[in-house]
Specification:
- It is a single chain.
- The chain folds into 2 domains: 10-83 and 95-278, Beta Barrel (Thrombin, subunit H), CATH 2.40.10.120; 284-392, Roll (Pdz3 Domain), CATH 2.30.42.10.
- 11% of the residues lie in helices and 37% in strands.
- The chain contains 6 helices and 23 strands.
- It has helices at 62-69, 118-121, 265-278, 295-300, 319-322, 357-365, and strands spanning 13-15, 73-84, 95-107, 113-116, 126-130, 137-145, 150-155, 178-183, 191-205, 212-219, 231-233, 239-247, 260-264, 284-285, 288-292, 309-314, 330-334, 337-341, 345-349, 352-353, 372-379, 382-389, 391-392.
- Strands 8-9-10-13-12-11 form a 6-stranded antiparallel barrel.
- The radius of gyration is 23 Å and the shape is globular.
- The two termini are 28 Å apart.
Length: 395
């Protein structure tokens, strides 16, 4: 399996509720501000046509999923303040402008922890959580991770008033599985939509524009601006993902086109656990770019192995750089793809064979910064082992 590539540029993936005006309400322009005359309507019942849908493989009905999980879905209101400096000629004084954006989230536990997207609360000076659209509870940001677009909030509420959502296993999700999304699109609170898993193992760009979020779930369940941070549920009402992005293709259309993405819940749970324990998240970082060896490439250039990863580049100051990992020096084009030859050819990490970028990434992701990994590689045709101390991924 080669490197996963979405059929869109990163700029064409729109976060569904970005602080500073990524929510379009009442005809407001995409990425525009919430107007003072915007009317937000409260919708507390599931969409009628969705209520007639039944799961493809058994499980709960949409009504049952809604009754079970909707009480645990919240609306997030993030308020940010921007200051405009005075003009160079001092004709106009500096101004302060308050902006609001809306997103979704869900209750993680009886202690009052809430899961949402990092981009929903990024840059916010005040965050509030609402259960019914009328009550506004102040929320504290416990921690956030722009590398995975996950944030954990904390509200002060009685345990009896909280409905934590059950978590599923995103590793078992398959294309064709029935899924439901509950969120607050365009401010319509607790709206239920239904669909299927369209694909798995997608890569989407993280809000920090540095890393990718791996193993994302693609779905055709309707996801719109304001759904960000809400749960994607399986047929039994368990959270298998956190809705995060939609694709607009090349249309420029602001609404749903049937291509939405959710961060897998296994990733979210791991990140949330680190935040709750340490208040922050660290990701192991090797510091190399690689190209996958193909049988054709191996045969044409008589490579010492028919599988593995050619080191294309090495980031200065990274663990790989300090360990002396060598990048390719000669560029070749085979089958329309560009490769860098002459550098190290990695075939295994800690004894586990790696033939794809995804396999290498998963092995590294299973470690933490400071861990040592042993790379088995070929250098100038000779097999050798190199020990690398993993660094911390740039944020």
């Amino acid at each position: 399996m080669g490197r996963t590539t979405l059929p869109l540029r990163a700029a064409e993936l729109l976060a569904t509720a970005v602080v500073g005006g990524a929510l379009a309400l009442g005809g407001a322009a995409l990425f525009g501000k919430l107007g003072t005359h915007t009317t937000v309507q409260q919708v507390t019942q599931p969409v009628r046509d969705v209520s007639q849908v039944r799961t493809l493989r058994g499980g709960l009905t949409p009504e049952q999923v809604y009754r079970q999980d909707a009480p645990g879905v919240v609306q997030i209101t993030a308020t940010s303040v921007t200051k405009t400096p005075a003009d160079p000629f001092n004709l106009f004084p500096p101004t302060t402008q308050t902006e609001e954006s809306l997103g979704s989230g869900f209750v993680l536990d009886k202690a009052g922890h809430i899961i949402t997207n990092e981009h929903v609360i990024a840059g916010a000076t005040k965050v509030q959580v609402s259960f019914s659209g009328q009550d506004q509870l102040p929320a504290k940001v416990i921690g956030k991770d722009p590398s995975t677009d996950v944030a954990v909030l904390k509200i002060d509420a009685h345990a009896r008033a909280l409905t934590p959502l059950p978590l599923g296993d995103s590793d078992t999700v398959q294309p064709g599985d029935t899924v439901y999304a509950i969120g607050n699109p365009f401010g319509y609170t607790r709206t239920l939509t239904a669909g299927i898993v369209s694909a798995v193992q997608r890569q989407i760009e993280a809000p920090n524009n540095v890393q990718t979020i791996d193993h994302a779930i693609q779905t055709d369940a309707a996801i719109n601006h304001g759904n960000s941070g809400g749960p994607l549920l399986d047929a039994d009402g368990r959270v298998i993902g956190v809705t995060s992005q939609i694709s607009t293709g090349n249309t420029g259309q602001q609404g749903n086109l049937g291509i939405g993405f959710a961060i897998p819940i296994n990733t979210v749970a791991n990140v949330a656990a680190q935040i709750l324990k340490n208040g922050k998240v660290e990701h192991a970082f090797l510091g190399i770019g690689v190209d996958q060896v193909t049988p054709q490439l191996a045969q044409l250039f008589n490579l010492p192995a028919s599988h593995g990863l050619l080191v294309r580049d090495v980031q200065a100051g990274s663990g790989a750089d300090k360990a002396g990992i060598r990048p390719g020096t000669t560029q070749v084009v085979v089958g329309g793809e560009t490769y860098q030859l002459g550098g190290d050819l990695i075939v295994a990490v800690d004894g586990k064979q790696v033939s794809t970028y995804e396999q290498l990434r998963d092995v590294v992701a299973a470690h933490k910064p400071g861990d040592k990994v042993q790379l088995q590689l070929y250098r100038h045709g000779k097999k050798t082992n190199v020990t690398v101390t993993l660094g911390n991924a740039p944020q």
